[in-house]
């Protein structure tokens, strides 16, 4: 077993803000998202020998975060849906300042899993199609169709929301 | 030339080669409807990115830094040391049917208060204590509170950042409990939860039965030991200012 290098550890530390943001697009609750990041860090350090020297560390880590999230959400089922969407929608309008931010986060959290990953990697993290497709281990065509469907769904949900506000 | 949604999307995402990009831009000049479709796609990309932007500006929790740097000295990567708090991960407490935790979406719980919706307010992505809750956090001492007080104060302590933080539970039908930290003139509610309460052996004080999620937040926030009765009174005396 190879020990994770000091360099890799510091690279992980440097990427933590982005890994946390990516996890937050996947798991909406901040504690859950940080739990996923922590699991991903532990896995990355345990499997550091699998990182190819020429591979970008960020992509490798995003992939581990995604897989950790998939495993964890399978393990706990779908108990995270505590609030019915209509309850949420009813309250959003009353919040004011960060209404849009919360509405967008809510809309993202309602996307099907793989569309959410595509949206998180490309729209939020700003990765290229090629990088995102590699992380998701799918052809670029699959990525772009997930991304297109994710966008359509977001557009539809967010138009509804803003339509309710004068 | 007709341009597919897929092409417009690729344009917005910066994925087109120079030739196709120039074609799209030329077509946009000729066709306002097309330009509008591109603008909508751009706006959506911007909105989604902005909605999560704040996360990268947050301080990274200590536990994640520790995980990345764990066991550096003995170069032993596996197994990792696990802090005791890991045993309270969401995998366990989310399994408790009645448990619920609110982070950034905290304020929506306001609807669960019957007559006390003014206990919480959400602004700028933070939830602050208001009214009865705010007054209790500022003025009530765990040592001399009555069991009938609508808000029960639990432990008080200093955070790693040096702020004063206190746990509380509400004695109304909401059965909510949480942790708030003093920042400026506000009590910022960091976590709000309900569900099965547990006592934590490390804090044998009144009001120490709290949902696990609140204890988890305390563990992640606390620096040193909780305040004793004297420390609590002194902190109150200086208005909970650091």
Describe this structure in words.
The complex is a heterodimer of chains A (166) and B (242). Chain A is an all-alpha fold and 166 residues long. Chain A folds into two domains: 1-81, RNA polymerase sigma factor, region 2, helix turn helix motif (Rna Polymerase Sigma Factor, Chain: A, Orthogonal Bundle); 83-166, Arc Repressor Mutant, subunit A, CATH 1.10.10. Chain A has helices at 6-26, 30-46, 57-76, 85-92, 99-109, 113-124, 129-136, 140-163. Chain A starts with 5 loop residues before the first helix and ends with a helix. Chain B folds into two domains: 5-57, no CATH class; 90-237, no CATH class. Chains A and B meet through helix 1, helix 2, helix 3, helix 4 and helix 5 of A and helix 1, helix 3 and helix 4 of B.
CATH architecture of the largest domain in chain A: Orthogonal Bundle
Number of helices of chain B: 8
For the record, what CATH class of the largest domain in chain A applies? Mainly Alpha
> What percent of residues of chain A are in strands?
under 5%
Top keywords for this entry?
heterodimer; A: 166 residues; mainly alpha; Rna Polymerase Sigma Factor, Chain: A; B: 242 residues; alpha+beta
Compose a concise summary of this entry.
Chain A is mostly helical and 166 residues long. Helix content of chain A is 73%, strand content 0%.
Layout of SSEs?
The complex is a heterodimer of chains A (166) and B (242).
Chain A: H1 6-26, H2 30-46, H3 57-76, H4 85-92, H5 99-109, H6 113-124, H7 129-136, H8 140-163
Helix pairs in contact in A: 1-2, 1-3, 1-6, 2-3, 3-7, 4-5, 5-8, 6-7, 6-8, 7-8
Chain B: H1 5-12, H2 18-30, H3 32-57, H4 62-69, H5 90-93, E1 100-102, E2 120-123, E3 126-129, H6 131-139, E4 151-158, E5 164-170, E6 177-183, E7 186-194, E8 197-199, E9 209-211, H7 212-221, H8 229-237
Antiparallel strand pairs in B: 1-7, 2-3, 3-7, 4-5, 5-6, 6-7, 8-9
Helix pairs in contact in B: 1-3, 2-3
């Amino acid at each position: 077993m190879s020990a994770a290098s000091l360099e890799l550890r510091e690279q992980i530390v440097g990427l933590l803000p982005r890994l946390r943001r990516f996890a937050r697009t996947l798991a909406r609750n901040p504690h859950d998202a940080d739990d996923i990041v922590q699991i991903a860090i532990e896995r990355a350090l345990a499997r550091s020998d699998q990182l190819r020297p020429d591979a970008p560390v960020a992509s490798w880590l995003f992939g581990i975060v995604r897989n950790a999230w998939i495993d964890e959400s399978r393990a706990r089922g779908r108990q995270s849906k505590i609030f019915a969407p209509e309850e949420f929608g009813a309250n959003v309008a009353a919040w004011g300042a960060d209404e849009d931010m919360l509405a967008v986060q809510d809309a993202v959290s309602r996307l099907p899993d793989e569309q959410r990953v595509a949206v998180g990697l490309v729209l939020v993290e700003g990765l290229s199609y090629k990088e995102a497709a590699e992380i998701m281990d799918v052809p670029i065509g699959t990525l772009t169709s997930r991304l297109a469907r994710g966008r359509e769904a977001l557009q539809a949900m967010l138009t509804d929301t803003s339509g309710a506000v004068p | 030339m007709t341009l597919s949604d897929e092409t417009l999307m690729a344009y917005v995402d910066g994925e087109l080669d120079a030739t196709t990009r120039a074609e799209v831009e030329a077509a946009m000049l000729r066709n306002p409807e097309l330009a509008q479709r591109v603008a909508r796609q751009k706006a959506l990309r911007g909105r989604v990115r902005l909605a999560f932007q704040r996360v990268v500006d947050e301080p990274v929790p200590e536990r994640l830094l520790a995980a990345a740097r764990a066991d550096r000295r003995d170069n032993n990567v596996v197994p990792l040391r696990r802090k005791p708090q890991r045993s309270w991960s969401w995998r366990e407490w989310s399994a408790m049917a009645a448990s619920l935790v609110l982070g950034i979406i905290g304020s929506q719980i306001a609807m669960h208060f019957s007559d006390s919706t003014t206990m919480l307010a959400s602004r700028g992505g933070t939830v602050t204590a208001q009214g009865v809750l705010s007054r209790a956090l500022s003025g009530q001492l765990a040592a001399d509170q009555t069991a009938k007080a609508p808000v029960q104060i639990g432990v008080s302590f200093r955070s790693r950042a040096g702020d004063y933080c206190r746990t509380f539970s509400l004695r109304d039908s909401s059965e909510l409990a949480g942790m708030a930290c003093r920042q400026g003139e506000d009590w910022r509610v960091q976590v709000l939860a309900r569900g099965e309460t547990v006592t934590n052996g490390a804090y044998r004080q009144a009001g120490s039965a709290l949902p696990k999620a609140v204890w988890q937040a305390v563990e992640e926030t606390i620096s040193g030991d909780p305040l004793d009765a004297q420390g609590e009174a002194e902190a109150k005396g200086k208005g909970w200012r650091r």
